[in-house]
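Q: Protein A?
A:
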Amino acid sequence: MTATVTSTSAQPAPTGITFPDGFVWGTATASYQIEGAAREDGRGPSIWDTFSRTPGKVFAGHTGDVACDHYHRYAEDVALMADLNLGAYRFSVAWPRIRPDGTGPVNTRGLDFYDRLTDELLSKGIDPVVTLYHWDLPQTLEDRGGWTVRETAEAFAEYAQVVFGRLGDRVGTWTTLNEPWCSAYLGYGNGIHAPGRQDPAGSLAAVHHLNLAHGLAARALRSAGARNISITLNPCEVSPLDPANPADVAAARIIDGVANRIFFDPILRGHYPADVLEHVSRITDLSFIKDGDEEIINAPIDVLGINFYTPSYVSAKPGQPAALDYPGSEGIAFRKPVGPVTDMGWQIEPESLTRLLTRIHRDYPGTPLMITENGAAYPEGVHDPLRIEYVDAHLRACHDALAAGVDLRGYFAWSLMDNFEWAEGYAKRFGIVHVDYTTQQRVLKDSAKWYREVIRRNGLE
């Protein structure tokens, strides 16, 4: 397989570590988090428009109505990307902009925006990497069952074809879904994300229909001529708290099943793991899995996107109630973070990224990988040494994985700029570009200037 996107030419690092020639350097964003213009040019409401207006769901009642106003300021933002020497930019398309009710007439004004954005990126030598779904489901589809019903998967494949029909002549890399774990378990399991349901059985139906949506869309895109197809997962790097304790090892195996293998195996092997199906059948009857579905989900991909932020450690704890975002996890406890944490309270452990990448390489050989999100939230302003330290350490972890033989093709920093951080609203800042939400002024943080030098060197000092 070939690399999925091209990178900028880069000079090798004179000292320190150097990444392979052609290694892709980019940043990533998501439509609802940055675009704003929530009611402009025919855009319909998404589940996040509804959820953010539900009292108590999002910090301080924040919404994405304006966000970073990227819809109007995209040219300014692309200029920033060019200044940073980015080789690629991963952005998502808002389904409600394209088909406001999910399945009906196509809104050409929505397509026009992504057309302009794509051309602007290409004019600056930046490869557009399109994610078709980053959580902003049209509200009308949710009203008809959302990801718990098969119709949504079928509608997604149709929407994917519409977007490809407009942008396919210029976009080389197509990512179907971003983090279906979050869409299923945070949206339908514990309800802390849109649409805010708490339904363990429904969350498992959502897992399957998201997997099916990926397979249907991947096949449709390939038939239409897409060159490189991907999906982005956020695997749980889960370890037993005591590796010598068989009960802790068994607990980690259960969490790995419902968090990771329930996605990895049908996508990359063509079937759900038998132990996972047996485990979750206690929660739901699995009648939503139809004959032929697993074959559809197993549509070939060219690269697997990996989003990574923090590890997990689990132990057996009889009597512990199940975590709603891990169906069937009763009797399992998650260790609280130890050591340094980010502003999200997430434990910092770069070596766990190396473990995750080498595990995927070992268990699913021949699968090219891309870090499609990695970064940290900190309350620092423009001067952000902790973010630089975090990214530096995780890039070194990536290099360790490369040295171990992992086929890792690139790295996308999360995020280009501060933005609407889902249920956290505007309280958490992940950007390497600072955004003043009152004036919409963008200012490069120290981390952005540092990252620009990393790209120039194609390595670290």
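Q: Protein B?
A:
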Amino acid sequence: MVLDGGLSAQLAAAGHRLDGELWSARLLLDAPAALVAAHRAYFAAGAAVVITASYQAGFAGFARRGVGRAGAVELFGRSVALAREAADGVPGRWVAASVGPYGAVRADGSEYRGRYGLGVAELERFHRPRIEALAAAGPDLLALETVPDTVEAEALLRAVKGVGVPAWLSYTVAGGRTRAGQPLDRAFALAAGVEEVVAVGVNCCAPGEVGAAVRLAAAVTGKPVVAYPNSGERWDGAGWTGRAAGPARYARDWVAAGARLVGGCCRVGPAQIAELAEALARTGR
């Protein structure tokens, strides 16, 4: 199944500024039609699943924009409704509600380090209201994504219990380990017996990290694997450097290793997803 690419990539290409602590979630307030258009671009490119604009959304961030708790719950729900609107009622199009990590909501880059100094219980208390607000809006899936460490993974796995929506758990990785440096086999194993989790894998990482992670995730959990890496370019503080390599280049190998949901993350746009969809169509996936 083909996932979309980076929502921010398409929004930036359309001329929208994404600075500020809410990132793409700001457009839930300021330009919701832009989100519908971005999601539609990915569906038109061949994606079967789009991921909502709730990655960096948080109650505190909305409060700083003058939105109270009830209004914030409505905005979480709006992220799902806008993606559903973009699906245009076409059968086989799915909406995954993004649940980004605590570090993303802090907007300080700590999602690439993890180990925030908070325990599992504290992180569960943070995530549970976000997950409940998204689940109430009726997405097909919850995307527990860009998770940097096992402490946050444990919290998220606790927080999804009983919400009634299946989820995938996706780590961000580097050097064959979580961003916090933990072994991936142990990280994936946390989700092995969790009924709510229907897929595990990696996202927001270099494409070269994916193959080994897919094989490991499949072996450890026996679950379908999700993989949606970045373009391969790197941010050096002033701009993007290096050569982009869309997921289509590697997709058949990832599928052969156990990946069943494949897409892209940062710097992967609709053109790269169209290439991916074509490549996967040739594999029958």
